[in-house]
């Protein structure tokens, strides 16, 4: 008993409190480490409930930053509970605040994506992926610029920024003068993304280039041409020239001239014109109101019948198939009436020497 009393009397109360504080701090840290995934899932599930999404919390881009943030909260609580030097605590507070703010901003930027509920609520065309990507990029840039200014303010450098801003102003003016074409392309990119003359996946024609749009950036637009080569066109070129968007077509024009031989009689010509109209009117791929068939010219070697109509197929490959069917129908009618198609010819008359002398 005496030895126990001596041992207890030798233990200082402050030492007991320090041991108790250490145990509590470790317990707090373990609590946040163990339950970080639970807290993260609750927050993400609440968010998904608001936006009516059925995705798994673990698939969210917020999941990892939230986990790290809860561990940092546990470490901060642990440091606050433990007796620490005031100077060290001040520095730790600064570092902790900046790190926590960083992860808060990271979580906020994870909300900004092409499927964001905010884009769907505040913008009229949430289905346009190109515009959404552009808005997300700009929004993320602004958010991280705010974070940089907060860091500068927290570290005490914000007071000396006036000279820096003035220098940046002169530098930006010099850069703008040196990069006028780049600035023009950037502005043109904004015009393309807001005016939407085309979107990714559209088949377009710009000057001598044709192809499928595969990417639209601030500076340029990339299209995949017929031969699978990728053409990069500056946005300033696109906005300063004509653009044909073939995907916006509801129908395509078909035009054909049948060169019938000069031996074809007028009766046969009238008959085949009527038959062509009948066949085309019964074709489900042809818009009936647009059919025009008539004899338009008589040349030195042919009678020309012009066929003009619009096909319902607007996409390129189905249009080619429909065009082929119409051409085959025209050829079948010509063959059925035993009419020969003409080709350019010249007649050469040769006289004998005797005939010339006479």
Please explain how this structure is put together.
The chain has 358 residues and is an alpha+beta fold. Helix content is 58%, strand content 15%. The protein is built from 12 helices and 8 strands. The protein has helices spanning 2-10, 13-51, 63-81, 86-111, 117-122, 129-154, 161-178, 180-195, 235-239, 266-281, 316-336, 353-357; strands spanning 203-206, 209-216, 220-224, 230-234, 243-245, 252-261, 292-298, 302-311. The strands form 2 sheets. Strands 4-3-2-1-5 form a 5-stranded antiparallel beta sheet. A 3-stranded antiparallel beta sheet has the order 6-8-7. Helix 10 runs antiparallel to helix 11. The radius of gyration is 39 Å and the shape is elongated. 13% of the residues are buried. The mean pLDDT is 75.
């Amino acid at each position: 008993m005496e030895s126990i009393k001596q041992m207890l009397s030798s233990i200082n109360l402050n030492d007991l409190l320090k041991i108790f504080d250490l145990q509590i701090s470790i317990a707090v840290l373990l609590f946040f480490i163990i339950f970080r995934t639970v807290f993260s899932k609750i927050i993400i599930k609440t968010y998904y409930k608001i936006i009516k999404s059925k995705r798994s919390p673990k698939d969210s881009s917020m999941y990892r930053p939230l986990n790290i943030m809860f561990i940092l909260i546990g470490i901060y609580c642990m440091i606050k509970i433990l007796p620490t030097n005031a100077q060290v605590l001040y520095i730790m507070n600064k570092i902790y605040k900046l790190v926590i703010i960083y992860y808060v901003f990271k979580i906020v930027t994870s909300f900004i994506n092409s499927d964001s509920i905010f884009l769907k609520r505040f913008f009229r065309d949430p289905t346009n992926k190109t515009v959404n990507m552009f808005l997300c990029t700009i929004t993320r840039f602004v958010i991280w610029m705010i974070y940089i200014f907060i860091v500068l303010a927290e570290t005490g450098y914000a007071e000396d920024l006036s000279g820096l801003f003035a220098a940046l102003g002169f530098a930006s003016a010099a850069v703008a003068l040196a990069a006028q074409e780049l600035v023009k392309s950037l502005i043109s990119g904004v015009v393309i993304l807001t005016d939407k003359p085309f979107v990714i996946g559209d088949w377009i024609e710009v000057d001598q280039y044709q192809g499928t749009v595969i990417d639209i950036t601030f500076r340029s637009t990339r299209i995949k041409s017929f031969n699978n080569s990728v053409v990069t066109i500056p946005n300033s070129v696109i906005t300063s020239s004509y653009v044909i968007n073939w995907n916006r077509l509801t129908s395509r024009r078909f035009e054909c001239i049948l060169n019938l031989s000069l031996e074809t009689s007028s009766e046969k010509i009238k008959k085949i014109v009527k038959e062509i109209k009948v066949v085309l009117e019964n074709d489900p791929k042809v818009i009936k109101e647009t059919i025009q068939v008539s004899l338009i010219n008589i040349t030195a070697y042919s009678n020309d019948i012009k066929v003009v109509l619009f096909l319902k197929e607007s996409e390129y490959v189905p249009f080619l198939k429909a065009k082929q069917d119409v051409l085959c129908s025209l050829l079948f009618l010509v063959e059925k009436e035993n009419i020969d198609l003409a080709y350019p010819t010249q007649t050469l008359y040769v006289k004998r020497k005797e005939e010339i002398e006479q």
